[in-house]
Design goal:
Length: about 210
């Protein structure tokens, strides 16, 4: 079962019960964050949701909570994009590594689930994201190629695919549980460079 988490207007993603409990203990999530999972009628504080789900799994005669996986698509864009790997997912959609048969190259697709696509606000935000990103050309910013709304499929953004390290996974392997400045400096400087570039072109980045 996936627990979808929101903080205000921000979608933080979807996690298993074990991950959610861990992130709460680490402070990445807070008790007041709102959570929802299949079968829940309304959003509730994440701490309360975890307590309820944990009690259910520990009750006598209970069975482990399992999520019925969403059937993985084989293609997107009416056959143009061949699915290769699920890169990540959240409450609004998923990110897939696919192969663009038309342009003969790997790309990433950020999908918007049909239930979200029916939400005019969600689709409007997706379109605004694409429109803004099309104006940005910087080596530290992923390039956006297109927004597609194919009939009978989830809407999606096609974007540049860049393979590399996952800092969250790398941090797990760190003996001290944190990065030293020398380790994180190149990432931080690259990020600041990209944020400054976007800010100078009218993006509000908070810097």
């Amino acid at each position: 079962m996936q627990i979808h988490i929101q903080r205000g207007e921000e979608n933080l993603g979807a996690f298993s019960l074990e991950e959610t409990t861990q992130y709460l203990s680490e402070g990445s999530l807070v008790e007041s964050d709102l959570a929802w999972h299949e079968g829940l009628e309304e959003w509730m504080p994440v701490g309360q949701v975890c307590t309820q789900l944990t009690a259910r799994t520990q009750a006598p005669g209970s069975v482990a909570l399992e999520e019925t996986p969403r059937e993985a698509p084989t293609t997107f864009g009416q056959g143009r994009y061949l699915c290769q790997q699920l890169l990540g997912q959240g409450g609004m959609g998923q990110v897939w590594l696919v192969y663009d048969e038309q342009l003969d190259r790997p790309v990433a697709l950020k999908t918007l689930h049909q239930r979200s696509a029916a939400d005019e606000r969600a689709l409007k935000e997706l379109k605004e994201e694409v429109q803004k990103c099309l104006e940005l050309t910087h080596p530290n910013i992923i390039r956006i190629y297109d927004l597609a709304e194919p009939e009978g499929e989830d809407s999606f953004i096609s974007m540049e695919y860049v393979s590399g390290e996952d800092l969250h996974e790398k941090l797990k392997q760190h003996p001290e549980g944190r990065f030293g400045w020398k380790e994180i400096e190149p990432y931080a400087l690259s990020l600041c460079d990209a944020l400054e570039y976007a800010h100078d072109r009218g993006w509000y980045t908070g810097i």
